[in-house]
Amino acid sequence: MRLAGQGARSLRLWGVLAPAAVLVLVAALLALGRASHPARNTAARPPHTLVEVSPGRCGRGWDDPRPGVQVFDLRNTSDQAAEVYLEDPGTRAVYGEVEGIGPGTTRALTVRIGKGAYAFRCVPEDSDAVTGPTVRVDRGRPGPAAVAVTVHDLIPPAIAYQKWVAGGLDETVRLTGALRSAVDRGDLAGARRAWLPAHLQYERLGAAYDAFGDADGRIDGTDAGLPRGVHDPSFTGFHRVEYGLWHGEAARTLRGPAAGLVKAVTALRDDWAQARMDPAQLGLRAHEILENTVQFELTGRTDYGSGSSLATARANLDGTRAVLSRLRPLLTTRYRQLSALDRELGQARTLLDGFRHDGGWTRPAELSRADREKTDAVLGDLVERLASVATLCDPRRTS
C-alpha cells in the first residue's frame, strides 16, 4: 500500500471534534475577505475583529471581548511570515491557528469564544514567539481546545513504534520464507495459503511505509504506470506473486518473483535498525492508513486475484490501532472523542471480520448493497475522526 501523503495544510484549525472541525473550517473560508465589509445582518454572521500580527504588537486590536463565534482578521504588519495561535495563556491550550500569514496580508480565524482567558501567540518564521495581551471573557461556552504537541513529545512514541515495526519485519521475513518454500517445491495450493498471512503481516506496518522508501515499491507495489502492466519486469513483490498464483502460472515462473520478494523483505529488515522515522509524521500516518484503505482496498483496486482486499482492510485497521496505541498518552488529554474513536474501531473490526468465511474473504464487488453502504460509512467516519488525530499530533513551535 502506497500512502498518498495528504499532509499539506494552508489553514490549520484545532478540529478536536471532526464535525466541529468541518464547521469551523467552512466558517473560516466564508469569513475570508470580509473585514472591510461589515455584515448587514449581524445576527446571522459572526462579528469581525482586526488583530495585528507582529513581534511588537502581537494580538493588539481585540479590545471588545464577547462570547460566541467570532472571526479574527489577522493582519501581518511585520516583514516576515508568521504562524498565529489563539490560546489559553495559563494552560497553553490552543483554540485555533493560522499558519503562513505573509507580510502585509490578512487571514481569517473563526473560533467560538466563551468564559476564560485568551491570548494571541505570534510565531514569526525566523524569530522567537511573542505572546500578546491577555483578554478575559466572563460568560459563554468556549470552543474545543488542546495543548500543542511538540516534536519532543512525539519522539518516545515514534521510537516505540519503530521497535514494534522491527518485530513485524522479522515475522514478515519468516512468512515470506514459507511462501517461497511452497513455490520452490511446486506446491501452488500451499503457496496460495501462505501468501495471505505474509501479505497481511506486511500490511499491518502501514505507518512505516514512508520510512521504507523505495523498498515498499519492490515489496508491495502495483502495476500502475508500468508500460507492460502485470507483465512488466518492474512489477514485483507480493502482488506479482499474487497475480501468478491466481492466474494459473507454473511454479517455475514464480520462483524468481518469490525469491525476489524474500530478498527485498530481508534487506528491509536488515537495514531497519539504521532507518529513522520522522516523529512529526506519526499522527498523519494514523489517518492515511485508513484513508488509503477506503481508496484502494474497498474499491478492489489492489486485488490481483486473491480476493483478499477486505482482509487487507482488516490488517490496515490493526496497523492503525498499533499507531494509536503509541500516541494514546498524548491523545488522552487532548482528544475528547478518544473513547468514541475506540468504539468505532471495535465496530469496524467486527464488521470486517464478518466478511471472512471458510473459503476466504468476501470480495468488495460481492458485498450486498447494505453491507457496502455500512462498510463505507463506518470506515469513512473513522477517516474523519483520524483527521482530527493527525491535526492534534502535528507538532507546533512553542518558543
List key phrases describing it.
6-stranded antiparallel sheet; elongated; 3-stranded mixed sheet; Immunoglobulin-like; 15% strand; A middle domain of Talin 1; alpha+beta; 2 domains; 399 residues
Describe the protein.
The chain has 399 residues and is of the alpha+beta class. It folds into two domains: 126 residues, Sandwich (Immunoglobulin-like), CATH 2.60.40; 242 residues, M75 peptidase, HXXE motif (A middle domain of Talin 1). It contains eleven helices and eleven strands. Strands 3, 4, 6, 7, 8 and 9 form a six-stranded antiparallel beta sheet that branches. It has a three-stranded mixed beta sheet with strand order 1-2-5. Helix 8 runs antiparallel to helix 9. It is elongated and about 80 Å long. The two termini are 37 Å apart. The N terminus is likely disordered.
Round the mean pLDDT to the nearest integer and report it. 88
Which class do the helix and strand fractions yield?
alpha+beta
CATH topology label of the largest domain:
A middle domain of Talin 1
Annotated CATH architecture of the largest domain: Up-down Bundle
Q: Helicity range of the residues?
A: 40-55%
* Number of β-strand runs: 11
User: How would you sum up the global shape?
Assistant: elongated
Q: Return residue spans where pLDDT drops below 50 for at least 5 consecutive residues.
A: 2-42
How many domain modules?
Answer: 2
Summarize the main sheet.
6 strands, antiparallel
Q: How large is the count of helical segments? A: 11
Quote the beta fraction. Answer: 5-15%
Name of the CATH homologous superfamily of the largest domain: M75 peptidase, HXXE motif
Order of helices and strands: HEEEEEEEEEHHHHHHHHHEEH
Radius of gyration of CA atoms, rounded to a whole number: 25 Å
CATH level 1 name of the largest domain: Mainly Alpha
Span of the ends, CA to CA: 37 Å
